[in-house]
Amino acid sequence: MVGTRKSLALVIALAISGVAAACGPSNPPDTAADKQQDTAPAGTGTQDTTTPPAGSKDPQPTPPATGAPSGTAEAPAPKPGKGSTPIKESKMLEDVKKAGVNLAKTTTLDKIPLGQKKKLMPLFQKALGYKDCQGCHVEGDFKKETRNIKITRGMWDHYVAAMRDEKGGAVFCDTCHEGTPKNLDRSDRKAMEKFMEDEYEHKLTRADKKDNECSTCHGDAMELKIIEKLWGIAKN
User: Fold this and answer.
1) Tens-digit pLDDT profile for residues 22-55
2) Residue 223 and residue 217: Cα distance in Å, rounded?
3) 94: which strand partners?
4) Is 33 helix (H, G, I), strand (E, B) or coil?
5) Which helix (H) or strand (E) holds 205?
6) CA angle, corner 157, sides to 172 and 129, nearest 5?
7) 163 SS3 class
């Protein structure tokens, strides 16, 4: 009886081992990759997410990229001259009128009588933010020609006498400067060009009624160094 049981057990064992051999091992040994996947925390990207778990929503499609192609950056839009002084209505027109100067019919500065020019000079000083007359003049020798005197003369002739605001009204030094001699931020060339187009070209008109364009100030050849090249005023 015992022998019969042993034989039966041997037959069953051989049958099971034959099935296992045909189907392969039920638990194949872990590879290095399998071990890494088993120990990787959720969300590290090592799991297969192509098939969502049962009951979960389908993954949302990634929206197409817009803007500049991959690997390139869009050039930022120029800021419109953040450090430049915008055009404003002059606050000194009444003072200019009291000095005896009619800006609607004014002429070049050298043709204005000396007495009237002396009354204008404090207004120049205030509009440009100079603390005293030495902003333009040499102390003790007010007749000495300085670069700033020549520039003031050029500014008067080419802007105060020749230009008007967008409504056709008179302009004065504070229209552009408003208390600062340096009214253009030149640190960003593109931003400065945009500022000049928006403010000087679009918000100023010409006394002669002609179109106000870049060439009004820069000439047909678009000379950028107006003071030195067009007005003939050398640097100090």
Assistant:
1) 334 444 444 444 444 444 444 444 444 444 445 5
2) 9
3) none
4) helix
5) strand 204-206
6) 40
7) strand
Residue-wise burial string across 22-61, b where 16 or more C-beta atoms lie within 10 A, e elsewhere:
eeeeeeeeeeeeeeeeeeeeeeeeeeeeeeeeeeeeeeee
Q: Which pLDDT score is estimated for 236?
A: 81
Tokens in use for 209?
A: 């009624």
pLDDT, one tens digit per residue, over 169-207 is 999 999 999 999 999 999 999 999 999 999 999 999 999
Rounded Cα distance, 147 and 136, in Å = 8
Is 154 within 8 Å of 231 (Cβ atoms)?
yes
The domains of the chain, with CATH numbers, are 93-210 (1.10.468)
Q: Are 116 and 99 in contact (CB under 8 A)?
A: yes
Nearby residues of 121 by Cβ (< 8 Å), 6 or more positions away: 133, 136
Report DSSP state, residue 110: G
